[in-house]
Write a structure and sequence with these properties.
The chain is α/β, with parallel strands linked by helices. The protein has 4 domains: 155 residues, Rossmann fold, CATH 3.40.50.300; 56 residues, no CATH class; 179 residues, 3-Layer(aba) Sandwich (Rossmann fold), CATH 3.40.50; 76 residues, no CATH class. 32% of the residues lie in helices and 23% in strands. The protein has a 6-stranded mixed beta sheet with strand order 6-7-8-3-9-10, with helices on both faces. Helix 6 links the parallel strand 7 and strand 8. Helix 3 crosses helix 4 and helix 3 runs parallel beside helix 5.
Length: 516
């Protein structure tokens, strides 16, 4: 990867902000933030969901104008909310959600993102490849240039987002939760790349959730809590994980207990979900299912492990009724639902926490109350055509308050919530009365450690209340901690079954296909 040249001054901070304040309605997202980030280092920014991390990142990148305060990039004061000025000063942002157009080839997408003033309206393919061959050499070689973005694995798309950012000759790279969609191995590769960029003089500000990731990659760490900077840039070697935890949570955190869920599972009906030799067609992203046999009983959590892209999405999609079964049967509580639509399965007690909470779990532009009330609306549709909007808004507000969703008004769009609060919104809807089986796909991905613990306690509480849980996760520690039984998927098949206590080496071998 070609890194822009240019000296990094140790005297002038790469980023300096003074007295930044941002509010959204009655919510104070940032309050009097002042900090300096030294050039040529990796700086981590941590805090709970809703602490203000993404808002601060957007202010620094010119995507959000602050109510008050100033931002200087490499010694240049940036006009509030001016993306072009931030880029001209040398700062580029890699967003939490990928920005390269999925239908474009890699070469086309990178050229579009670069938007050079001297660019022409028509290109020869060989010219595009020549332009970008050096930049993608470390990502996947020149062969990747002809591949469409949508056909690439997540870790390659993440790497290309960094290539896109550096194409503007940026000397300061801001990454907002870049590990949220990555496997542990891909995260290690990303961190190695970031350390190489740092050694070449690039300054990096990275928003992270997991403390072990902070320790693995950062030179300094800063902590936001409730929109305030409670720990300024501090050398990572001088801060223990205990001190970081105290700074993130605060000296007297509000108890965040798991929500008690009244499951509808019949104690006499132990077998809640059953797949009998189920097969499905492959998708553009991963293989279909190949004769899957799987059961989930009442009062158990069944884990699904596997390297991403080995059929986990196909499994969840088939169970939810979003993909067709080519062979075999799907049963819920003993009732065959193989051809049943998703709405009927939901009425039968199936609930789903999807892989991507933002694109699959909510309607981003719809108000919070409508997102939260979706299940009640499905059940009500057959009973009575008239509804009371006031009643639904009140019920949505009560449910979100119970799940401690941080919001201003039930009428605000769901996209205005932080990632952790979106997940709480999804859980407040899915873990409602009538639940028998919960399919939870990556339920803690991208959440801070406090929200992660909250979700895990809630899953245990759901199991203890009599429901069945199918947990799909790329986090082996999470699977080992929660699962009563564990299945490993490889190439669309279940290749191994394990009971606790789990052998990490054996599970890892199964995930890589060594046990086939």
């Amino acid at each position: 990867m070609t890194v822009p040249s240019g000296p990094a001054s140790a005297e002038v901070p790469a980023v300096r902000c003074r007295s930044l304040g941002v509010s959204f309605g009655t919510v104070q997202a940032l309050h009097d933030i002042s900090l300096d980030l030294a050039a040529g280092r990796i700086h981590a920014l941590v805090g709970q969901n809703g602490a203000g991390k993404t808002t601060l990142a957007k202010v620094l990148g010119g995507l959000q104008a602050p109510d008050n305060g100033t931002v200087c990039i490499a010694g240049n004061q940036i006009p509030p909310g001016d993306v072009r000025a931030a880029k001209s000063a040398g700062l580029a942002m890699v967003h939490q959600h990928f920005s390269l157009p999925p239908s474009f080839t890699v070469a086309e997408a990178l050229e579009l993102a670069a938007a050079r003033p001297e660019s022409h309206s028509v290109y020869r393919r060989t010219e595009l490849y020549r332009r970008w061959q050096n930049e993608v050499a470390e990502v996947g070689g020149t062969n990747v240039l002809a591949t469409r973005i949508r056909d690439l694995p997540v870790e390659t798309r993440q790497s290309l987002e960094i290539v896109r950012a550096l194409a503007s000759e940026a000397r300061i790279l801001l990454l907002d939760e870049p590990t949220a969609l990555l496997t542990p191995a891909a995260t290690d590769t990303l961190f190695e790349r970031l350390r190489g960029l740092r050694d070449d003089g690039v300054t990096i500000l990275i928003v992270l959730h997991k403390l072990r990731e902070v320790a693995a990659v950062a030179d300094t760490v800063s902590v936001l809590r409730d929109g305030k900077l409670v720990l300024g840039p501090s050398e990572i070697s001088g801060v223990s994980q205990g001190q970081l935890s105290d700074a993130i949570v605060g000296p007297a955190p509000d108890a965040d207990r798991a929500i008690a869920v009244e499951a509808a599972a019949n104690a006499e009906q132990q077998l809640l979900l059953e797949l009998v030799r189920v097969s499905s067609r492959e998708s553009a992203f991963e293989p279909g299912l190949a004769s899957i046999d799987l059961t989930v009983e009442a009062r158990e959590i069944v884990g699904i492990a596997g390297v991403e892209g080995n059929g986990q999405r196909s499994l969840v999609s088939v169970i939810a009724g979003l993909s067709a079964v080519t062979e075999g049967s799907v049963l819920l509580g003993g009732e065959e639902v193989t051809r049943a639509p998703p709405a009927r399965r939901r009425l039968r007690g199936l609930r789903l926490v999807p892989f991507d909470r933002n694109s699959e779990g909510i309607s981003r532009s719809a108000p919070l109350w409508l997102n939260q009330s979706a299940l009640r609306l499905i059940g009500r549709r057959r009973q009575f055509p008239l509804i009371s909007l006031r009643q639904y808004k009140r019920q949505a507000s009560e449910a979100m308050d119970l799940w401690r969703v941080r919001y201003d008004t039930v009428a605000q769009p769901a996209e205005s919530l932080s990632g952790g609060n979106v997940q709480r919104l999804v859980l407040s809807r899915e873990l409602a009365s009538g639940l028998e089986v919960l399919v939870a796909a990556q339920p803690t991905r991208g959440l801070d450690f406090s929200a992660t613990n909250f979700v895990r306690r809630s899953l245990r509480g759901l199991r203890d209340a009599g429901a069945g849980v199918l947990l799909v996760s790329s986090d082996l520690d999470e699977l080992f901690e929660l699962s009563d039984r564990l299945f490993v998927m490889y190439g669309g098949s279940i290749v191994a079954r394990f009971n606790a206590p789990y052998d990490r080496q054996a599970v890892g071998d199964a995930m890589t296909g060594a046990l086939r």
